[in-house]
């Protein structure tokens, strides 16, 4: 039996729970929220999908009900407002985490913590501090897993191929300073430009810049219209959770504290049953290395406010 708990039954928490049920991520799922009625309603609604998806036991509960969870997803916190950057959420959500993380660890001391609350990199670093160094491998954030998925989807659309055959990463901050590692993007083993040329598809500096802009500003554009994003991140969190529960050793750009950069940020990491198993080093161009350092500096400066 695999048990997962989600703390925060708002838009992202509910979308994550729904994605997990549709994908059959776990056998038991518990929603916890300060608004207990909301958690119960979301759990009931999602449970009604189980007869036509996967037989996941879905319920609502309190912190005490986190006991026995293999993994706890933290989505609780203030929502990002239209026009507000992820880093502007920092002070509000840091206060939430200082109260929440000790309670989660007290109820589920063996669980892996997966952080989704924005700004996710600083929240991940704060959670790691609160959890202590002995749990370093088991505290990480969703990072740029969704940004990377967006990149792959946009390139696939341009190339007219299955996005699962597009490989490439977005690194650094999950936010405005994130870095698209263009030098390492491949399709079916070919470098991006070589594939596009062979497939007679348009690709140049302008198309690349447009694609990067779309990746970087996707969330802001969605939030400006509908007030939040939930489905993409919900699916990403389900995917990360499965890497842990099923010991898949998946390479995912989750966020974790990295000594060289002095902050939590996203790099390709091997994720499995024991949490973070390895951080991979990509052969970046000089410009990409410099951009990644600038992104780390943004996060170090943001972290000084709360760490």
From TrEMBL:
Keyword hit for Repressor: no
A biological process from GO: glycolytic process
Keywords on record: Allosteric enzyme, Cytoplasm, NAD, Oxidoreductase
Any one Pfam family match given in the protein's UniProt record, by short name: Ldh_1_C
Domain Lactate/malate dehydrogenase N-terminal: 2-141
Residue numbers binding NAD(+): 8-13, 33, 38, 63, 77-78, 93, 116-118, 142
Listed Gene3D superfamilies: Lactate dehydrogenase/glycoside hydrolase, family 4, C-terminal (3.90.110.10), NAD(P)-binding Rossmann-like Domain (3.40.50.720)
Active site: 174 (proton acceptor)
GO cellular component: cytoplasm
InterPro entries listed in its UniProt record: L-lactate/malate_DH (IPR001557), L-lactate_DH (IPR011304), L-lactate_DH_AS (IPR018177), Lactate/malate_DH_C (IPR022383), Lactate/malate_DH_N (IPR001236), Lactate_DH/Glyco_Ohase_4_C (IPR015955), NAD(P)-bd_dom_sf (IPR036291)
Primary location recorded for the protein, binned into one broad class: cytoplasm
Signal peptide: none
Lactate/malate dehydrogenase C-terminal domain location: 144-302
EC number: 1.1.1.27
Catalyzed reaction equations: (S)-lactate + NAD(+) = pyruvate + NADH + H(+)
Residues involved in beta-D-fructose 1,6-bisphosphate binding: 152, 167
Regulation of this protein's activity per its record: Allosterically activated by fructose 1,6-bisphosphate (FBP).
Subunit structure: Homotetramer.
Main function: Catalyzes the conversion of lactate to pyruvate.
Matches recorded under PANTHER family: L-2-HYDROXYCARBOXYLATE DEHYDROGENASE (NAD(P)(+)), L-LACTATE DEHYDROGENASE
Record family assignment: Belongs to the LDH/MDH superfamily. LDH family.
Protein name per Swiss-Prot or TrEMBL: L-lactate dehydrogenase
């Amino acid at each position: 039996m695999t048990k997962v708990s989600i703390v925060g039954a708002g838009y992202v928490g509910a979308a994550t729970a729904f994605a997990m049920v549709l994908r059959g991520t776990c056998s038991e799922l518990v929603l916890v929220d300060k608004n207990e009625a909301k958690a119960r309603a979301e759990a009931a609604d999602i449970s009604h999908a189980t007869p036509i998806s996967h037989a996941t036991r879905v319920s609502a509960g309190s912190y005490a009900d986190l006991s026995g969870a293999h993994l706890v997803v933290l989505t609780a916190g203030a929502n990002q407002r239209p026009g507000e950057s992820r880093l502007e959420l920092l002070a509000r959500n840091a206060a939430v985490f200082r109260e929440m993380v000790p309670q989660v660890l007290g109820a589920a001391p063996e669980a892996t913590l997966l952080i989704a609350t924005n700004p996710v990199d600083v929240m991940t670093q704060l959670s790691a501090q609160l959890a202590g160094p002995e749990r370093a491998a088991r505290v990480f954030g969703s990072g740029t897993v969704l940004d990377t998925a967006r990149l792959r989807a946009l390139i696939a659309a341009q190339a007219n191929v299955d996005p699962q055959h597009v490989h490439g990463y977005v690194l650094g901050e999950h936010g405005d300073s994130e870095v698209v590692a263009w030098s390492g993007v491949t399709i079916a083993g070919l470098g991006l430009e070589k594939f596009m040329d062979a497939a007679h598809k348009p690709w140049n500096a302008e198309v690349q810049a447009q694609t990067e802009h779309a990746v970087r500003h996707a969330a802001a554009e969605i939030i400006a219209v509908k007030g939040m994003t939930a489905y993409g991140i919900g699916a990403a969190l389900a995917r990360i959770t499965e890497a842990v529960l099923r010991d898949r050793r998946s390479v995912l750009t989750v966020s974790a504290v990295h000594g060289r950069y002095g902050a939590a940020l996203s790099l390709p990491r091997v994720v499995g049953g024991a949490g973070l198993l390895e951080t991979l080093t990509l052969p970046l161009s000089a410009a990409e290395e410099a951009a990644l350092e600038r992104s780390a500096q943004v996060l170090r400066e943001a972290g000084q406010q709360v760490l």
